[in-house]
Amino acid sequence: xxxxxxxxxxxxxxxxxxxxxxxxxxxxxxxxxxxxxxxxxxxxxxxxxxxxxxxxxxxxxxxxxxxxxxxxxxxxxxxxxxxxxxxxxxxxxxxxxxxxxxxxxxxxxxxxxxxxxxxxxxxxxxxxxxxxxxxxxxxxxxxxxxxxxxxxxxxxxxxxxxxxxxxxxxxxxxxxxxxxxxxxxxxxxxxxxxxxxxxxxxxxxxxxxxxxxxxxxxxxxxxxxxxxxxxxxxxxxxxxxxxxxxxxxxxxxxxxxxxxxxxxxxxxxxxxxxxxxxxxxxxxxxxxxxxxxxxxxxxxxxxxxxxxxxxxxxxxxxxxxxxxxxxxxxxxxxxxxxxxxxxxxxxxxxxxxxxxxxxxxxxxxxxxxxxxxxxxxxxxxxxxxxxxxxxxxxxxxxxxxxxxxxxxxxxxxxxxxxxxxxxxxxxxxxxxxxxxxxxxxxxxxxx
Length: 447
Hints:
Elements: H1 39-56, E1 61-66, E2 72-77, E3 84-89, E4 93-98, E5 103-109, E6 115-120, E7 126-131, E8 135-140, E9 153-156, E10 163-166, E11 172-176, E12 180-184, E13 192-194, E14 201-206, E15 213-218, E16 222-227, E17 235-239, E18 243-248, E19 255-260, E20 265-269, E21 278-280, E22 287-292, E23 298-303, E24 308-312, E25 318-322, E26 330-335, E27 341-346, E28 350-355, H2 367-382, H3 387-394, H4 400-425, H5 437-440, E29 442-446
Antiparallel strand pairs: 1-28, 2-3, 3-4, 4-5, 6-7, 7-8, 8-9, 10-11, 11-12, 12-13, 14-15, 15-16, 16-17, 17-29, 18-19, 19-20, 20-21, 22-23, 23-24, 24-25, 26-27, 27-28
Helix pairs in contact: 1-2, 1-3
Pfam family, one: Sof1
Keywords: Nucleus, Repeat, Ribonucleoprotein, WD repeat
Family: Belongs to the WD repeat DCAF13/WDSOF1 family.
C-alpha cells in the first residue's frame, strides 16, 4: 500500500491578523533584494527626509528657572533625586529648585559674597557650600521647619575657598583655595593639606570610579593630581593657558576633560599626561565649565561666547550648539543623571533647561512611533557619509558674533600654518620641526 503525502499550509496568525479592529491591515513582505531593485534610492530619499525632519524638530530649549537677584555662580545635582537642583549666586543666595514644576522650593542667604561652589553628600540628605566669607557650611536638603534653614555645620578656613567636591562613599570632602585641603565631617581642621608651590587653585573634583583620586586646576596654568591616601600631590601638567574647570569621565576611571581659556577642551588620560588624548574645538571664547553625561560618551561645555556646546568624548568637534538671544556669558553647566537634560547657569540671573538631544520627543512613545524613529535613526546612520545628508545633519545656525569670531579664528590658524610652512621651506632641513596639534598646548609635565 503506497503512502499518501499531504502538504498543509501552515500560517502564523501573528503575521496577518490585526491586534485590534482599529489597527492597520498587515501586509506580507518579501525581503529578497532581487525583488526590490529601487530599494537603495528609496531609502536615500527616506534618509534625506529623516535628517531634514530632525532639523525641523530641533527645539532644545525647554524652559528657565528665574528668581535669582544676581548672576548664577554654581549648580549642584542631587545624587538620588532627578528633580532636585541647588544653585548659588554671586550675592550669596542659595536656591533649591523642583525641576518638574520649575519652581523654587527654598531660598536663603548662605554666604557673605559669592557662593563659589556647591556639592551634595552621597546620601543626598545634606549639601555643602563654600563662599567668599571663608566658611564651609553644611545644609539640610529638605527644610521641614524654620530651624532647618540654619546650617547644620559651619567650618572656618584661613583663606578663601573657590571649589568643593565630595568623596563618592566616604564622609570626606576636598576644598581648594590657596591649597588643596581634605576635610572630614566630624573635624574642624583639615585632615590633610596638599601643597605644590602654586598661588591658588580654583577648581577641584573627585574621581567617581577611582574614588581616592582627585584633580584640581591651578592659577599657574597647571592641572594637579592628588591621592587621598598619599601625603603629597602626585603629578602635574602645565598648559599654555589656564584651565577653568575639570570633569572626570564617570565610566572610564583614567579619563578627564578640562575646559581651557584658549577656547578648547582637552581630554587627558592620567597614565599619559605628556599630551591630551583629544582636543575639542568649536568655542570662540574661554570655556568656563564642563560636565560629563552619566554614560561617559558625551560632555557639555559652557563658554564666555554665550553658547552651550555638546561634544562626543571621542570627537574633536561639537555635535550641537545651543544659544538664545537673552542668554549671556555662561558660568556653569550640568548634565542631569537621567541623561535627558542639560542645565546651564549664566550671569543674567537665569538657569535654563535644555534637551540633551535637540529633536527628541519628550513623553511616552507609542510602539509604532518608536519603530519609525528607530528606522529613521538607522537610515541616518547608513547614509551618514553621503554629502547631502552630512551637510544637513551638520548645519547649525549660530548668532552673527559667533560666525564672525569663527571666521577670525580660522584666518589666524591659516596664517600661522602658512607662516610655519614658509619658515620650514626657507630654513635648513630639521630646524623647524613638525609639532603635532596635541603636543602644542602642553608646556611641561612634573612628577
